[in-house]
Amino acid sequence: xxxxxxxxxxxxxxxxxxxxxxxxxxxxxxxxxxxxxxxxxxxxxxxxxxxxxxxxxxxxxxxxxxxxxxxxxxxxxxxxxxxxxxxxxxxxxxxxxxxxxxxxxxxxxxxxxxxxxxxxxxxxxxxxxxxxxxxxxxxxxxxxxxxxxxxxxxxxxxxxxxxxxxxxxxxxxxxxxxxxxxxxxxxxxxxxxxxxxxxxxxxxxxxxxxxxxxxxxxxxxxxxxxxxxxxxxxxxxxxxxxxxxxxxxxxxxxxxxxxxxxxxxxxxxxxxxxxxxxxxxxxxxxxxxxxxxxxxxxxxxxxxxxxxxxxxxxxxxxxxxxxxxxxxxxxxxxxxxxxxxxxxxxxxxxxxxxxxxxxxxxxxxxxxxxxxxxxxxxxxxxxxxxxxxxxxxxxxxxxxxxxxxxxxxxxxxxxxxxxxxxxxxxxxxxxxxxxxxxxxxxxxxxxxxxxxxxxxxxxxxxxxxxxxxxxxxxxxxxxxxxxxxxxxxxxxxxxxxxxxxxxxxxxxxxxxxxxxxxxxxxxxxxxxxxxxxxxxxxxxxxxxxxxxxxxxxxxxxxxxxxxxxxxxxxxxxxxxxxxxxxxxxxxxxxxxxxxxxxxxx
Length: 601
Hints:
Blueprint (H helix, E strand, L loop, with lengths): L14 H14 L1 H32 L10 H46 L2 H6 L2 H43 L2 H48 L1 H6 L3 H53 L5 H42 L21 E8 L8 E8 L4 E6 L5 H8 L7 E6 L2 E2 L5 H6 L1 E4 L10 H6 L7 H10 L3 H6 L17 H15 L3 E5 L7 H15 L3 E5 L11 E6 L2 E6 L1 H7 L2 H22 L1
Parallel strand pairs: 3-8, 3-9, 6-7, 7-8
Antiparallel strand pairs: 1-2, 1-4, 4-5, 9-10
Helix pairs in contact: 2-3, 2-5, 2-9, 3-5, 3-9, 5-6, 5-9, 6-8, 6-9, 8-9, 13-15, 17-18
């Protein structure tokens, strides 16, 4: 299956498609949405009533002194409408808050779950810093879109319609024509300029993600930066991305100033024409002073939200641009998928079979060629070979991080492509060569093997992995934080945490991928004895570099350039005096050379 790499979003992505993605979340709370819209309508009706009351107040006060009385009822009505406008608006926000926050939560969870469903290939190619910034901007965009699309665009349109209807019914048609002409000019200008500006916004987002990627990558590799004294180089690399972001941001801001100035000019011209018409009407005796005040109040109420509408439309387009990259993640295909009718793996004995397996990460680069072997239930099979021989690829295929391109892999006779991925991975435990821990406590990292385990079980797993005594010497014990990727611990300590984590999981099948490579010789011997005892009760696949650690294997496979070139027990392979025997001789010489140095130390 061809996988579309995560990167820039499609240029012609349909904004309505993005908006439609949010509709199911609104439908879930349709009662709240309907109530919020009702409160919104009430607030707008109250707002439109304010200038009508204000006209009556002015007209009642614009009389000869002898006839002048205080319009108490009208003033009370004016105050009540002001309060209603604000109150209904606040109630609307309170009612709709749960809809917005739940939608953001649901979308964020959907993206998070999808990211974990994507293949290892995607995660090896991703840029974590940029991707996290895209998700952050996307969720903020959802909040803005839901709030302002429903509660600014719709009410503004409603208010414009009400004001136009009132003016058309009370005054000459020219007032309504001027308002409509101003609206058309305003909207056309806003649409054209905003679309032109979107290229600056997208470029700004891209540069922001790129800069964040560079920063996160550099900070995660802090020690490497220090080893090579490349602080200034990293700063220049980060600044290079920030310079491009700065250029895009300046263009974005200058074009925004042009848009705002144009919108203000259109509104100013419309307001001036209307006030001149109203003033002339008062002079001619066709309109009262109250009419002039009412039209002015309507214009203020109308053009302020209209001016804000331009901002809202602009920001909605920005939000859609921000959401594009996040939703493009959801469009990234899941390379390895369960079949629609996939059942859970029915694990009994735990035998593994690689049947004529071929595989390549890329069609142009084959990694495995017709690999065929079996790990009988309860047996221990080791795989050795030089770097690049394809050893670690076997464990990735067994976990079904990738699907084989030829042949098949079975567990207890079941093709792992026919069962659910979760059930396969539940049945297998691995101690990898490169152990990466969560930035949390030692306790949390061991408990990750079985989050439901008791504290006693976790401590027992730590004891079996020979890390309990070390943990007890720490000031915070099991609550000690291990740092980003476990960097506060040594390689050997991290590996023992990984072993404890796998022991706690207690799977039927065990995979040790250079499981003791980071341990000192004394600790390695203790743990090897423990692992050997564990392996007697499990089906075990060992990927090894030190041949001394797999002498007790039931079968040893020697791989070279993706093919199995030798197989047999340790003694059988030594007697064949071939590749394995030469590897053994070389390692024995290396260990003999290291022994005097160790003794001297």
